[in-house]
Amino acid sequence: MTNTNIPHSFAPDYKVGRRYLHAKSGSPLTLRYIGPLPPTSSCSPPTQQIWLGIEYDDPSLGKHSGTYQGIRVFETAEQGSAAFLKLVGNPLNEGKSLVDSLEERYGIIDPAQKQPKKPQNDLDQDEIVLGSSKGAIKIEANWQNALERVSNLEKLRNIGFDDEYIVQLGGDNNKRDLMKKRLKGVKWLNLAKNLLNTWKEVADIVECFEGLEILTLSHSRINCISETIECQSQQRFVETFRQIRGLHLSDCLMTMSAMAILVPLFPALEVLYLEANRTLNILNIVSKTRPLQGNTTIKELRIGGCPVEDWKEVSNLFQFFLGLHTLDISYTLVSIVPADQTRIENITHLALLNSCLSSWADLGHISQQFPNLVSLKFTLKGQDRQEEDFDAKQECPSLAISPSATLQRTLAIAMFPLLASFNFTTVIPSERRDAEIFYISFVDRYLCKYSEEKGEQWCRYLDLCKTYGKEESKAEKKSEGLRGRMITLNIITHHTSEPTTLSFLPSTPIPLLQRKIARQLSLPLNAPINIWTARETEGRREYIASVTAEETMVKRDVGWWFRDGDMAYVDPI
Fold it and tell me: Which range is the signal sequence, renumbered to this chain (predicted)?
């Protein structure tokens, strides 16, 4: 309900539906209602006090959902985001025009217009006092030269008005024409935290930046375009937005229905940011987003922080964004990834920061669905630091994803065969080899602990066993105590034809392994010896990885490299 019968003496300059700033707090909001509050009872006389019904962008600032004494006064986009303000003085402030902000930040648009005067103060206008000199050191300001350099609009490539709360384009036709001429080089325009109300207002601004490729409108509350948009208006939008490749709409209360109308208006769109949109219901994508079906232009999609709880919602995306290769689903509530034979070949980059996943099997299922993944960003929910107690973790293999960042990285590298980057750090070939060898021993120890489990349930385990010449663990139950945990190695050298057996705890450091082997071979205890993992294929021995390489010897132990019954080749130097 919006009261329009307001006495002239009370009539404010505000308009329902427009965006404003709270005069005291500066918080952005939308004006939803102007008028008196409803009477508290049928006997109460109507009040002459005019109130403003507002909806805050931040719902935590609200006090109700547009109701007064149980009576609905106006509708809100979010529950609990509304409040009433008494119309006394000027409780709401308007935002700035883009033209005014541009000239304040970057210089005068019209070169023929007079430059602003030099600042006035008690000092000489051409001098600046260095703050730490207490007035002892003065330097020439040369304000005119500074203004000329700042106002060189033709050289601008990225411009931003974040926190400026732009409400409209502003300026006359002459200034707009000059903007088009002087700002052709601008590629990225940041209008985050604006007070724009319609996509027409957005189009008015974009038309002044003919070379624009990236548009940021995050933290906005722009009204959705109508499904019955006129053909002429649609053509204008398509023409205006034809070069936009990146669109940032994080925290804009976007819905999939709105996106279905909006995305076709950006024919060249490749990157779409929809993070933190609390109203984005991806589960209904099939029934409500038919215009999105078959989209091949969008390559990167970010929906981190959106209300995504089921992996089915993620799977639905691939029916519509056929060209997608980068997906960010960080800070979502997805906790299980079911096994699925569907393979999405084009996904190469995935972000799962602050993830609710709990099982290594979930990562394995992702590996199977995204076989060409080359970049993965992954952390557990609440994981704010790297766990250092890695050795203790590897002694107790479990299906539960460990909080150890080291173990996460190692197992992820082994699970994703093409992974070249994990959490922004490059994966080198030797690290992959080490990770895959450890992964085999990790799964072996798990299978020994849980004899009813099968190795095929672990992603890539059987393939890696074949690659490194190891047989699948038979999961034989070992005796309890230290003896049951011992790893027996078959030690061979180029001097011996028959192997020598030695047993070690999995946690045995590699330097101690060297000393024990040296003693067994009657060598000095400090004798430098190289130790290699080895396998025998068709009567031919193959040496795979150096256990005693300087960069890995301190970090790895026997349990990392070997499992019970493995062959170790020793080369005394």
Answer: none
**CATH entry 3.10.20.90 includes domain 481-572:** yes
Tell me the sheet residues that pair with 542. 535
- Say which CATH architecture domain 98-113+139-386 belongs to: Alpha-Beta Horseshoe (3.80)
Helix and strand counts by DSSP (H, E) for the chain: 17, 27
Tell me what pLDDT residue 228 has. Answer: 87
DSSP secondary structure string, 527-540?
--EEEEEEEEETTE
**What size, in residues, is the chain?**
573
Rounded mean pLDDT, 261-289:
85
Q: How confident is the model at residue 43 (pLDDT cuts 50, 70, 90)?
A: low
Residue pair 258/230 in contact by the 8 Å Cβ criterion = no
Q: Give the predicted TM-score (pTM) of the model.
A: 0.80
449-458 residue pLDDT tens: 777 777 788 9
Q: What is the pLDDT of residues 490-501, one digit of tens each?
A: 888 877 767 888
- Which residue type does 512 have? L
CATH class of domain segment(s) 8-93: mainly beta
Continuous segment of H or E residues that includes residue 349 = strand 349-355
Q: Max Cα separation, the chain?
A: 109
Question: Range(s) for CATH 3.80.10.10 in the chain?
Answer: 98-113+139-386
Q: How sure is the predictor about 47, in pLDDT bands with cuts at 50, 70 and 90?
A: low
Q: What is the mean pLDDT of residues 266-270?
A: 97
The values of phi and psi at residue 339, to 5°, are -65, 135
On whether the CB atoms of residues 35 and 51 are closer than 8 A, the answer is yes
Across 16-25, 142-151, 452-461, least confident range: 142-151
Q: How far apart are CA 183 and CA 210, in angstroms?
A: 8
At residue 562's C-alpha, the angle toward residues 458 and 377, to 5°, is 45
Instruction: Express each pLDDT in 539-550 by its tens digit.
Output: 677 777 778 776
In angstroms, what CA-CA distances link 2 with 57, 73, 74, 225? 20, 8, 7, 22
DSSP structure string for 77-118? SSTT-EEEEE-SS--EE--EEHHHHHHHHH--SSTTSPPPPP
Parts of the chain belonging to CATH 2.30.30.190:
8-93
At 65, list the tokens: 């959902």
Residues 6+ apart with CB under 8 A from 338: 311, 365
